[in-house]
Task: structure prediction
Amino acid sequence: MPNIELTLFLIFKVITLTLSSPDANKTNSANITMKTNKTLLSLAVACGLVATSSTVNAAGFQLAEYSATGLGRAYAGEAAMADNASAQWRNPAMLTHLEGTQISIGAIYVDPNIDINGEVTTNSATGDRRGATSSKDIANSAVIPNFYLSHKYNDKLAVGFALGTNYGMETELESSFTAQHFGDKASVKTVEAVASLGYQVAKSISLGAGIRYVTGEGHFGASLKSVADGSVTTLKYMEGDDSSWGYQLGAAWDINENNRLGVAYKSEVTMDFEGTASGLSYTPSKPGTLSIPLPATLEIASFHQLTDTVAIHASINWTDWSKFKELQAQFASGPDTIKTENWKDNYRFALGATYQYDSKLALRTGVAYDTSAVDDKNRTTTIPETDRTWLSMGASYQFTDQFSLDGGFTYILAKDAPISEPRDSSDQTAALIGGNFEGEISGDVWLIGLQANYTF
Result:
């Protein structure tokens, strides 16, 4: 079982460091920042013990689920929104819009239903032999936790600390699936700890920046199912772990009291997963590294308060997935291309609305469209990337001046899309061993989130 007690203790430690004095002066604030940074690495590791992997809910193996607040509006306008401490995750400049000291803790449950159906063509002495094959629920359900802490130091400066994840996925095909030779399992799991600050450089303009510490693990495998007796042989399997650093930048412009624009950028982080390769292709087992890019992202967002009770918000997101060209292992003897990917840049478009029903209850809704990071010819069974449509709704309830709860619900419809392997020379050996595969991916994803917010 995960060491939850350790995780909760470290979270409590960060909170008590920050709240050690209700009237924080300059010296105390500096001490808070230093102590928080010292706790950063150990807290990131502890959070990794309770963070579970997820299926792909945004493009590629990107995860959009950073808060239940944003979930209820399909994450529309996030870089221009400042509901609670979670705002720093998408735009550190929004820290300047948060008063006092705030804490947000939440989790999002992800229930994917992704299926692959198709047909394998194999060669035999008697000619081509065709057989239908399928794998149901190839992506695991998961709980994605998050933690955010913000502190307004003075009228211009604010600091923040966050724990969450931007990237993660896990797929595992059933043992009965007969196209495992192209890949039967893939996983990328990451946890990020981010220390950020926001500064109001002018009455209507704020800037922000943050340092990201990313730790994670990953694996990829391919197997061959025997036609004769149904036994499964591992062709290749590689796993490893790594930690790396990145940064984020943000800016916000309050055009007037009812309209705001925000822009945010997260740098690319390359994970060199260091571990061991095994299977028939790597006999005996040998050490190596597998590099996976966690690509740069850019968001442009807007917020518009139309009336006293109605607001709309929108986002355009770009992710530099064209950096993901191949899965290539590095060994002492030289490189080995496990599988080409040839992804392309992805765009996400989101539109949402908020209705303030009364002084305590706020209602949200949103819709979003995520474009696929691969063309039809490059789609694979292990990362079956496709277009997605988000339909979301949510609410916030202000129990007291200090405490509120947010809830969000989203249904994601994945577009049916074809898969054809082999795609290129990196798949030819697998095709010769186990045959060709022609099929289709289909499915949907359900998400539900809950988040508690407290202001001191």
Remarks:
- Residues 26-50 form the longest helix (25 residues).
- Helices lie at 4-18, 26-50, 68-71, 428-434.
